[in-house]
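A reminder from the course coordinator: this example appears on the midterm review sheet, so study it carefully.

Given structure:
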């Protein structure tokens, strides 16, 4: 696995230091959208002396080289997305979890046209949905409550 990561970094013109390889190993294997602090916590197991500044610099470099996407999906919080194909996001307002939604799950084909009508040239777009899981109601029981008999 490390050999593949080293080759991928080299292919992008990134010098594969031990810190960069450790960061890449984590962020390219996760399905989450980690912030720099989460990456630091995960990578410290492998590279105990790594600093938060090194993690930030590495993540920004990876985003600049097209290995990750840097996303500001909520106020004051930047996360990194290893999924580079076009897709949308759903944010759970209760937990903060960020879920990926396939591009084809939403129909927004007129969004770029609307922006062009306002004089913008659109380079990229995505939809960010925010919400809470619907409360699950217990299934209705057909049994009579204890101590009571059903009417016949």
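Designed residues:
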């Amino acid at each position: 696995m490390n050999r593949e990561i080293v080759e991928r970094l080299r292919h992008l013109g990134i010098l594969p230091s031990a810190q960069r390889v450790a960061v890449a190993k984590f962020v390219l294997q996760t399905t989450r959208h980690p912030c720099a602090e989460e990456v630091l916590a995960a990578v410290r197991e492998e590279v105990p002396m790594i600093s938060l500044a090194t993690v930030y610099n590495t993540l920004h470099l990876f985003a600049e080289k097209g290995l990750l996407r840097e996303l500001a999906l909520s106020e004051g919080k930047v996360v990194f997305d290893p999924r580079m194909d076009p897709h949308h996001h759903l944010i759970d307002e209760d937990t903060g979890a960020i879920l990926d939604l396939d591009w084809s799950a939403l129909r927004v084909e007129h969004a770029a046209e609307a922006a062009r009508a306002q004089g913008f040239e659109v380079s990229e777009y995505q939809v960010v949905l925010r919400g809470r899981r619907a409360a699950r109601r217990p299934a209705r029981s057909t049994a009579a409550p204890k101590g009571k008999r059903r009417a016949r």
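Helices lie at 2-11, 18-29, 36-43, 52-64, 111-117. The two ends are 69 Å apart (CA to CA).
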